[in-house]
Write a structure and sequence with these properties.
The complex is a heterodimer of chains A (126) and B (491).
Chain A (H helix, E strand, L loop, with lengths): L6 H18 L3 E6 L2 H5 L2 H14 L5 E6 L11 E4 L6 E3 L4 H14 L6 E2 L3 E3 L3
Parallel strand pairs in A: 1-2
Antiparallel strand pairs in A: 1-3, 3-4, 4-5
Chain B lengths: L9 E3 L13 H6 L4 H6 L4 H11 L11 H10 L6 E6 L8 H8 L1 H15 L3 E7 L3 H16 L4 E4 L4 E10 L8 H8 L23 E5 H13 L1 H5 L9 E8 L5 E6 L4 H8 L9 E6 L5 E4 L9 H6 L8 E6 L4 H15 L5 H18 L5 H17 L3 H5 L2 H9 L1 H9 L14 E3 L9 H5 L5 E2 L7 E2 L9 H5 L5 E3 L1
Parallel strand pairs in B: 2-3, 2-6, 3-5, 7-11
Antiparallel strand pairs in B: 4-5, 7-8, 9-10, 9-11, 12-15, 13-14
Helix pairs in contact in B: 3-4, 3-6, 5-7, 6-9, 13-14, 13-17, 14-15, 15-17, 17-18
The chains are: A alpha+beta (126), B alpha/beta (491).
């Protein structure tokens, strides 16, 4: 890794990261909550099922990521899906079956799937 | 950004990145202006950084609410060849998981904030004291520290400024008292995790007798946002005495169990009903324990209190680190007090007598009451013993241990009275005080209860109402759980 020696370096690094992320635009991003509790609730099972379904359907343009706590303990496992050009949507209670349904219905066809968790916060973005 | 969020109720500052970034990817954090706060403070003097934090009004989120900037100022003012910046990640309150969520979801914000604090007080070394019960948080934190080091954001000559700072981890064995800062420091030194009297405060003489700042995970998580957005922005959120937001872990009998972050000044009613969705299954809300075992139970009468450090204290509870355990009509408040006493009795370090023996005696009295053997004199004993312990215990753990008892005795006096005078538990929780009978109008005589009764005290003819022999009933509740016709009455 390159060392960051100044604020200019940091800003350049940030730009480089943002440019790289811009490449990911046009892709579907599937973000699975994987904190200790989300894993215990079945987050990894959901992730693996979705990865399997994506592979089975030969989908390209789908990127997976893990994140920490999404704060919705009551609805774990939770998965956030961002379709290209669309607002991210968080789904709760994603067991294996629902995980596969999310890929075949929401990711592939954009069909609405039950279990959407409404956004109930404002967030500081620095 | 609006100071109040009437529409959405929640405002996320400390948890701004949780759920949005890959905690194991430093680039994700940098993309959201990560480490810019550190770069910014390195162009300021340490006194200017301390002043900025002071003006923001940030207070310690571990529970006591001491102003962070003032604490940092004390350490800055103390000359020493070595100072230390410590992150208290020894989260131990029952029902609390805010710090783990931050560390597992956004470890870099804590790493960056520790470096900022280190620069502000003149420390070159930081330590995260984290309980070994948090393996995933440890793993992600370690990776964050390694990655920051690889990028040159930790280590020597950070941002070419000449400032050196590095972080190591120390593991706690999961002892509640080690969250108390003097006990935490003793534990870091390899000694028994026992508190010592203050003063001197750690900011004067702490780890290896050097000036040491101990801040909670959530306190740190706020710092980068304050540095970037400014003191005025932060102090514009919240109430007159309590600025910014607070993260709470909503647990217990609440519909939307989860982590929330709300601006200070929001009411308990908004938190429990608007955000939490109230109690599940249509049950009535009874109380909420804030501040873990050091706090108190707040009831219906307190629902419109604005949440800040002073208002909660005025209601005989505390902000605490942010555990909120909600109770409904099915919870017995004497048992709740007993539960928290059981916890502190287990977790007392035993160094001082009021805490070591006092907790045991308090527990015994509560246990007697829940078993129907309590007397009116026990209530007086509970109260006077509680007050003596509050006055005489060495550290915060002992001084706050009687709080759940005092607050429940105050608000739910009738429940204590019912246990003592009528030998009844109104919430039907205390086993010894229950009686099970069968409603002959509802009983179909199916015989299911007779088959599950372990002491064979239920009898009757098939298809005729059955009866329970109260003298032999052990009150296990097996018949109550099994009956399909709601014909067993628990009183």
């Amino acid at each position: 890794m390159s060392t960051i020696r100044s604020l200019e370096d940091l800003k350049a690094k940030r730009q480089e990261i943002l440019d790289r992320k811009a490449v990911a635009k046009g892709k579907t991003i599937i973000n699975v909550s994987l904190a200790t509790c989300s894993i215990a609730a079945g987050g990894k099972v959901a992730m693996e099922a979705m990865q399997d379904e994506v592979a089975k359907n030969g989908l390209t343009g789908v990127e997976f990521m893990q994140s920490g706590c999404m704060t919705y303990c009551y609805a774990e496992p939770t998965v956030e899906i961002t379709l290209p050009g669309k607002t991210p949507v968080v789904f709760g209670g994603v067991d294996e079956n629902r995980a596969r349904e999310l890929v075949t219905e929401y990711v592939m066809k954009g069909e609405p799937v039950e279990g959407i968790i409404p956004v109930n916060y404002e967030r500081v973005v620095l | 950004m609006a100071a109040t969020t009437t529409e959405k109720k929640q405002l996320r500052i400390a948890t701004r990145n949780c759920g949005f970034i890959d905690p194991e990817n430093i680039d994700d954090y940098i993309a959201l202006r990560g480490y810019e706060g550190l770069a910014k403070v390195l162009t300021m003097t340490p006194a200017e950084v301390v002043d900025l934090v002071k003006r923001s009004g940030l207070r310690g989120r571990g529970g006591a609410g001491f102003p962070t900037g003032i604490k940092w100022g004390i350490a800055l003012g103390n000359k020493a060849d070595q100072k230390y910046m410590v992150c208290n990640a020894d989260e131990g309150d029952p029902g609390a998981f805010m710090d783990r969520a931050v560390l597992e979801g956004d470890p870099h914000s804590v790493v960056e904030a520790m470096a900022i604090g280190g620069y502000a007080i003149g420390a070159t070394r930081g330590t995260v004291y984290i309980r070994a019960e948090y393996p995933l948080a440890i793993k992600r934190l370690k990776k964050a520290i390694d990655d920051a080091r690889d990028y040159g954001l930790l280590g020597e000559n950070i941002f070419g400024s000449g400032f050196d700072f590095d972080i190591e981890l120390k593991y706690g064995a999961g002892a509640f008292v080690c969250g108390e800062e003097t006990a935490l420091i003793r534990s870091m030194e390899g000694k028994r995790g026992e508190p010592v009297t203050k003063p001197p405060f750690p900011a004067q003489s702490g780890y290896w007798e050097k000036p040491t700042i101990v801040n909670n995970v959530e306190t740190f998580a706020n710092i980068p946002a304050i540095i970037i957005n400014g003191a005025d922005w932060f102090s514009g959120i919240g109430t007159a005495t309590s600025k910014g937001t607070k993260v709470f872990a909503l647990a217990g009998k609440i519909q939307n169990v989860g982590l929330i972050e709300v601006p200070m000044g929001i009411t308990l009613r908004e938190v429990i009903f608007d955000i939490g969705g109230g109690c599940p299954d249509g049950k009535a809300f009874k109380a909420v324990q804030t501040g873990g075992p050091s706090g108190g139970a707040l009831a219906n009468k307190d629902l419109d209190v604005a949440i800040d450090y002073e208002s909660l204290a005025a209601c005989k509870s505390i902000m605490g680190s942010g555990g909120m355990v909600v109770m409904d009509e099915d919870d017995c408040m004497v048992s709740v007090a007993k539960f928290f006493l059981d916890f502190t009795m287990d977790e007392t370090c035993g160094k001082c007598t009021p805490c070591r023996i006092g907790s045991k005696r308090l527990y015994e009295i509560l246990d007697r009451i829940t078993k129907g053997k309590g007397t009116r004199a026990d209530l007086d004993h509970l109260k006077s013993l509680s007050e003596i312990i509050k006055d005489t215990a060495l550290c915060g753990l002992g001084q706050t241990m009687p709080n759940p008892i005092l607050s429940t005795m105050d608000t739910f006096a009738d429940e204590y009275a019912a246990h003592i005078d009528n030998k009844k538990c109104p919430a039907h929780v205390c086993t010894a005080l229950l009686t099970y009978t069968i409603d002959p109008a509802k009983c179909t005589g199916c015989g299911l209860c007779t088959r599950v009764c372990p002491v064979e005290c239920i009898s009757g003819t098939k298809k005729q109402p059955h009866t329970i022999d109260a003298t032999r009933c052990i009150k296990c509740g097996a018949c109550y759980d099994k009956c399909k016709f709601d014909s067993i009455i628990k009183q």
